[in-house]
Write a structure and sequence with these properties.
With 496 residues, the protein is α+β, with helices and mostly antiparallel strands. It has a domain of 134 residues. It contains 16 helices and 14 strands. Strands 1, 2, 3, 4, 5, 6, 11, 12, 13 and 14 form a ten-stranded mixed β-sheet that branches. Strands 7-10 form a two-stranded antiparallel sheet. Strand 2 and strand 3 form a beta hairpin. Helix 2 runs antiparallel to helix 3. It is globular, with a radius of gyration of 27 Å.
């Protein structure tokens, strides 16, 4: 049995008064965001509170029906609020960004991190579902893919949260053949095909240029980092980036001369596309690992709950070529403890110290934490609805829940510091922070999910059976109507 001194909540920065007030804190949080869920004709904010509290308190089965049951709401009304109600997810994102910007502790050192998250699907009836790369499964699978932005600030009290997201619609979904399906799923007529880097750039512009978020750097993984177009957009907006790239990315060690080559003959068409005119040849970034000019340093980046992040880093000034121009960039290399080498390109100024470059390169793990929290703790991957608007609304509610936890952890850490003597007792430098799972456990203690009486449970089961029966009747009627409908021109009927 642990010593009472070691299990004293106050020593761990956990105020029991704050814990007891966690339910009131959630209510006040919802009150701030309540206007985001009102439309010209309806106020659906009560369903927003129910959905938010359901995501935070329930462990599994966080779909519309179950959340409605657990929070004492109509399943039909909850489904309408999430699937059909025209409230705008962007209003939620803008208010969250405003609160981040209004938090003094988060003004310096902020980072935006771009990534994607895939959710496996069983059929192509859901908006955007198609066989495509699922990073979590590591293979091509029938999935929906969302592009997400996370905000992180690890300078003082570590904070991370999703801040926005959008659904990737494969090009086949925007074909004329799928117009009817798009209409059924509520995909707007003006939606055009965008690549994932294009979606990512739209999200970044929204956060920084529209909402006014200030960050030190934008980070992304190889899918986005190898996009020369995306890096050019970030440079054009005067944004510093740290973009992961594959090991075979080609760079120049000396500035190449780029231009349109002279016409060599009076026959044929004259050259019009810029090319590298000088003798420099590109090399792959992995070739720089053992180059004599590469100077490696072991740097301690930060203390972590698992020890220290202390790896070898190196950086070289290189050039890449984009649209007829030689672009100066850093290639930043990291040798992880496992021996694996990773690479990133950055447009940070020439005099940027290696310690700063290394710090930025190690920020991407935060998006992995954010994705994991969203799936394991907030039910992101338990989403079952098919419509486009339902997906957007589910993301907005998940982002809202993510920021509630992040803000709670930050404000509690400021109000009740951990006892540094505990770290000395355990001979560690850093004590673990409260996790999202911890906050959810505390919230369930002060806002327990209702325990139904046998009569109430039976009533809910009967309601569920009635809904399933009505749904089956509707499907049978639809099938019968379709069977008796006259064939259209071009239909083939009969048995071959």
């Amino acid at each position: 049995m642990e010593s009472p001194a070691l299990v004293d909540p106050e020593r761990w920065g956990l105020s029991l008064d704050a814990v007891r007030g966690l339910g009131d804190r959630l209510w006040a949080y919802w009150e701030r965001y309540r206007p985001c869920f009102k439309t010209q004709t309806r106020d659906g904010s009560a369903y927003a509170y129910a959905y938010l509290s359901g995501q935070l308190r329930m462990d599994t089965g966080r779909n519309y029906a179950n959340i409605a049951r657990q929070t004492g709401n109509s399943e039909q009304n909850m489904q309408h609020f999430m699937t059909n109600s025209p409230w705008q997810a962007q209003e939620v994102y803008q208010q969250i960004t405003g609160e981040i910007m209004a938090t003094p502790e988060l003004r310096p050192g902020g980072v935006l991190i771009l990534d994607e998250s895939a959710d496996e699907k069983s059929g192509e009836q859901s908006a955007g579902a198609q066989k495509q790369h699922n990073g979590r499964l590591g293979k091509i699978e029938l999935s929906q893919v969302g592009v997400f932005l996370a905000y992180a600030n690890l300078r003082q009290t570590p904070v991370w949260t999703w801040v926005s997201g959008d659904l990737f619609l494969p090009e086949a979904w925007l074909s004329e053949e799928r117009a009817s399906q798009r209409g059924h799923l509520g995909i707007p007529d003006d939606v055009e095909f965008r690549t994932k880097p294009e979606i990512g750039w739209d999200l970044i512009q929204q956060e920084i240029q529209t909402y006014g978020l200030e960050v030190d750097v934008v980070c992304c993984d190889t899918l986005y980092g190898r996009s020369t177009w995306l890096r050019a957009q970030l440079r054009g907006a005067s944004l510093t980036y740290m973009a992961e790239v594959p090991c075979d990315t080609q760079v120049y060690l000396k500035k190449p001369q780029v231009g349109i080559p002279p016409r060599r003959s009076r026959y044929g068409r004259a050259p019009t596309r810029p090319q590298v005119l000088s003798a420099e040849q590109p090399v792959e970034v992995r070739s720089l690992v053992h180059a004599p000019e590469t100077r490696w340093q072991r740097l301690r980046i930060r203390s972590t709950e698992r020890g220290e992040l202390c790896d070898r880093f190196a950086a070289r000034r290189v050039w890449t070529v984009y649209e007829g121009h030689a672009i100066p960039e850093w290639v930043v290399m990291r040798q992880e403890r496992s021996g694996k080498y990773t690479y990133a390109l950055s447009n940070a100024p020439k005099g940027t110290p290696l310690t700063q470059l290394a710090w930025w390169k190690c920020q991407r793990y935060v998006i992995e934490r954010s994705n994991q929290d969203a799936k394991s703790e907030l039910g992101w991957d338990e989403f079952q609805a098919q419509k486009y608007r339902a997906w957007q609304h589910h993301v907005a509610c998940t982002v809202l829940a993510s920021w509630f936890v992040a803000q709670t952890k930050l404000e509690w850490a400021q109000a009740s510091a951990q006892d540094p003597a505990l770290a000395q007792v355990f001979e560690v430098e850093v004590l673990p922070m409260l996790s999202m799972a911890n906050i959810r456990s505390l919230l369930r203690a002060v806002l327990p999910l209702p325990q139904l009486t046998p009569e109430e449970a039976a009533e809910q089961v009967i309601e569920h059976l009635l809904n399933r029966t009505r749904s089956r009747k509707s499907r049978l009627k639809h099938a019968a109507d379709h069977a008796h409908a006259p064939p259209h021109d071009g239909d083939v009927t009969g048995t071959p």
